[in-house]
Structures are given as structure tokens and as C-alpha cells.
Amino acid sequence: MKKIFVLIVLCFMVQMNSYAGPSISNKFQKSPDPEASYYKGFFEYETLIQSRIGQDSDRIDLGKYVGASEVGNAPRSILRLLGVYESGASTIQNGEPNSLNFLLWTILIRGFVEDHLTICSSDLKFSKFLDPQYFQLIQQLCNNQNFTDVLLNELWIRIMGYDVPIEEYDDWLISVKSYLTEHPNSKNEPLEFALSLLFLNPYLLLK
Amino acid sequence: MESNIKRRSFLTALGALPLLPLFSALGSEKNKQTEDPHFFIMGYLPGGVDLTHLWDQRDLSLKSSKIRADYVGEEPKIYGGSGVSQNTTKVTSLFDPLKAYQNDFSIIKGVWMSSDFDGHGENQNLLLSGNPFGGKLFLPYFNTNSPLDVLTNFNFPISLSNTNKVVPLNRNTLNTLQERVSRLSPLTTGNPLFEALRKKYASLAQSSQTGSISLGAKLLYSGLLGQSELQDQFNQLGADGSLNSEEELERYLKRIFSLMKLGSTKTAFLNLKASNGLTADTHDSASAKETPALLKSYVAQFVSILKTLKETPYDSTRSFMDVTTFLIGTEFGRTNRQDAADIEKTGTDHNPYNNSFLVGGKNIVGGKVIGGSDLEKENELLSPVHLKIDPNKKMLMGKPYDFILQKIREDLPNALNLDQYITSSSLINTLFSTFNLDKSFWRTNGKSSALASEIKEVLK
Known about the structure:
The structure holds two protein chains of two kinds.
Chain A: H1 2-18, H2 42-53, H3 77-80, H4 99-118, H5 132-141, H6 149-160, H7 166-182, H8 189-199, H9 202-205
Chain B: H1 7-15, H2 20-30, E1 39-45, H3 52-55, H4 61-64, E2 77-78, E3 90-91, E4 105-111, H5 120-129, E5 135-136, E6 150-152, E7 160-161, E8 166-168, H6 171-183, H7 192-206, H8 212-236, H9 245-262, E9 267-271, H10 285-289, H11 291-311, H12 320-323, E10 324-330, E11 333-334, E12 350-351, E13 355-361, E14 369-370, H13 384-389, E15 401-402, E16 407-408, H14 424-434
Parallel strand pairs in B: 1-9, 1-10, 4-14, 5-7, 6-8, 6-9
Antiparallel strand pairs in B: 2-3, 4-13, 10-13, 11-12, 15-16
Helix pairs in contact in B: 7-8, 9-11
């Protein structure tokens, strides 16, 4: 009985392979190395951000920044462009970074960062979505004078967590401080710059 | 002369050297409009639509003989007219709106889909990947330099791979995206965030220590460089509006053409739905009786596609019809009737042995009818191949085809050899031929090791 089952499975596999057709030569392979990191995907990214800087009562809705939450103009399908796991699929769909999904990620992140900056103008509407300690940290960083190593380190850890190489933090810190030096009279732009650079960091965006 | 090059700028430029091939690849995108333009559009009718009632119709005598249900209910006429190759093909009045465009397309009839499976999924997979169990979607093969492979309003089955640059961009998504992009300040060269991200992604892309992140960062780098161009492209798209079905399709197509012309993509896949909510999968008699209304709706959409292709200029001398190859069709045909059902009340089932398609546009000859199906007369002698598969004569079946002489064979084969029939593989290989695609992409007819023959008669 077992032999018959194995034989049936083998026949099925032969049948499948018979449809495979010729292999495609490497020169036409446009996909990158299959080992390349793909996006975490929209929902995993949103969950991660929520767990690090959000609070339980009012959850952060990142979809709204790409127009996916507005009633009447709410094509949730746009989120599929940011990488999603379709039901039953083992690999992420639309997860390979390209011009279009990167454009969408920048729209999302820049909108999210823009909301952060409302805190600097004492608009507290956005604060209800944020963990109180994170909110206080952002409030402090609204003042460029507070861009100290201690507070910047705290911001890094809040958003990036602990599983990113330390060199990444060093690079980011240098970039932020360079920005401050080159834009001495800026208002909230250093915070906008620092946050955008964090939220678009490959270790956060990619798997 | 004092040098203005700062040490940091120099080091940044030096660091970017290994990424020069990447710059070069993106640069070639800028030149794509100077290349010979060639796009591809596929219009897909989900559910298995009985297109025989349009352009492969039988006389009403087959209905009176209780062989074939005919809810159109009219005596068909021989398909002809200026520039159209004459044959025995018969069309109904449902076909009339297409006559104005009959030299812009050819009809491929008698196409065999899967000879092993009659399910929707298997035949959909076969059409799109060449394998009933799924595999690589063929449309991305037509893309070479564009950032996106396929724009579509369709959710491809998960059994199809090769879809990472397939963008599900339905009309609403396109509108939302355009609106959001228009609000965004450009992230381009000189912008501090752009420069910092470029530096970050470039350094990670070059790092040999970071494995898969390094490869992902390379893609992010490419995405970063390409996104500002794409932002420009979206900003140049015209405004959309609230329109009825055919006009909506035309508007959507024009916006897709704009993105093609701007270089975002070379292919689009349109999932066409009957505007009146009718189903193509007419197993029940009530649905089958609505076949004329269903086909009327689809013909209106075919006309919209053809009209938009012809009337949308690509440049001062060419329309999109001149630079686009198109294919319109469904996953399989349908049976003439169901067993034991009254011929006046029967539904129709799946028939993968006789499908038909419209092809046209760049590198395709218009006005032809290629291939054919059997059971044209009630007393027709059918092949042993037909009778073995369909002893109750419920189906039309594609006739064997001589790919050398390019004509239908009238012999009645005893054994099935798919290489002697027009199949979905020969149809798709014909499309591959219009793009001069390397033969390593070409399909076989399943168990055969030989590449399925292209249909030369339809090629320019």
C-alpha cells in the first residue's frame, strides 16, 4: 500500500515537472539574489512601530498616510503595494523594493513624521497615539538644543530596538549632528530629518 | 584655480564607485523612449466565457438537432469584409460593433487549453504561466528596463511567481496614489534626507558583512533613485473622473498608457468584468440564457480597448495600437450543453478543448481568422481523439493545425499529439515571437519536449 502511495506521488511529481518547460537563462533573470532582504511588509512594520512607540488605547494607523483609511476613498489595495502576505502565501507579495513601493514608503513615513512635528507646535491630537515617554522625548527634541547624545540615543533605541549593529547608530548620529551643523538656524527640520532617517533605515524596513 | 571639492564629497563619490553599474542601469531607463517602443496589454475575461457565440457560431440547425444550445437565437453569417481573410467562420450580430476594427485584430480559434484538467485555476495557471499547477507569470518577460513589470487591476493567484514587480493598481488605487504623490515635496538630489539615505543605502549595499540586508539595501538604493522620476510621472498624469463602465475603462487605459509612455512599465493586465454583473461561468441555465447580454457587455469593452489603442497617440506618427501587442481572452471555452438537459434549458460546462482569443497590434497581422473547431454540422464525422474525450458530443474541439502550411488539417487523428494543435503554449509563444524573446522562455505543450510552434500566419 505504502509503495503504491509513493508511486502515485512520484507520478504526480513527474506530471508537474513535465509542464515546467525550459529553464530561463541567467541573463534574463531580473530578480535579485533570492537571499536579498525584502520589506517586512506594511502590517509587520506597523505592528513593530506600534509596539515600540505606540500605546494600546489608540493605535497608530500608518495606512492613513497613503490614503488607505479614508472612507469613500479607501482602497486598502494600496497597502498591498507596500508588501503583504496574501492568505495562504508563504512569501511576501510586492516585497521586493522598487521605485513605486519606495515612493509609497516615503509618502507614508514623511506623513507620519509630519504628524510627529505637530507636537512641536503644541498640537496634542497626535499625542494620544504615542507612548507617554516617547511623546515626552519628542517634545524635548522639538528644541534643537536638546539634541544631546543621551536623548538621541534614547530616540534610537525607542525606534530601532537593540538588534541593530552599533555602527548603524554611529552613522545615524553623525548624520543628524552634521545636519544640525549645516542648518544652524533650522526649527523642527533636524527632528524631521532624524526621524525620517530612522523610519527609513533598512534594518527597520527590511526583513 | 581653487578646488571646490570637499573631502567628504570626494569620499562619498569614491564610496559610490562600486555602484556605478547600478547608475548605468538607471541611466538606460532615461533612454528607453528612444528605443523601439513595444508594450503588451492582456484583457482577461474571468470564468471561462463562451466566445464561440461571437465569432465561431454554428447554424441554428445544431440547436434543432439538440446538439448545441443557442441562446443568441439567430442564423449566423459568414465573417468577411474588406481585408478579412475569408473562411467558413460564422459570426452573430453580437460581433457587429467589432467590425469597425476587424483589420486591427485576428481571431485565433480552436485553441486547446489543458488536456488534463478542466478547472478554472489549472487553466488560468496554464494560460498565465504555461503550467496548470502554477509557475512564472509570463508578462514580466516583456519588460526589460522599466521599474515595474505589470500594472494590473487583477489579483494574480498565489500559485504564480515572478510577480514581485507586478503592481495591483486598480483605478481607485491609482487615483489615491496620484493624489498623495502630488502632495509630496520632491525627494531628489541635494535634499539632505535624499543624500543621507543614498549614503546609507550605498554603504550597506557595498558591505559584505551584512548579507541579505546588503542586497536589500541595493534594491532600496535603486528604489530611492527611481522614486523621484516616478513621482514626476504620476504628477504628469491627467485627472480622473467618475464615469460609466466603458468610459471608465478607456480612462483607466489612457492613464496606463501615460505610465507606459513615461517609462514606468511595459505591460498591463486588465481583468475585464461584465458591467451588468453577469457571470461567465454559466453552469445554470438562467446564467447561460444571459450569454448574449454577457457577450454584448464584453464586446463593448473590447471596442473600448481597440478604440483607446487606436486613438491614443504614442507620438506624432504612431498610436498606441502601433506600439502595443494585445491579447484578449479567457481560460477556456464552454460545452454546447449539459448531459440530459433540455436544449432550451441547459447550462454549459467547462471546455478546455476549444478556446478562442483576439490578438493584434504591433507585429501582428490583422483581419485573419486562424484555426478552427469541429462539430460544424450535425452529421459531421468526428475524430477518434474527440470521441474518446467527449463520446456524447457535448463539445466543440479545436481541429489539428498544420504549422508548416499554416492551415487547419481536415484529417481525423486517432491519437492526441498536442504539438499538432493550436494550444495556449503556441499562442503565447507567438506573442513571445513578437517581442523577439529568447527561446529559453518558450513553452512546450506539457509532456512534449519540443517547443510549441508559433502561429506564423499571424506574425508580421
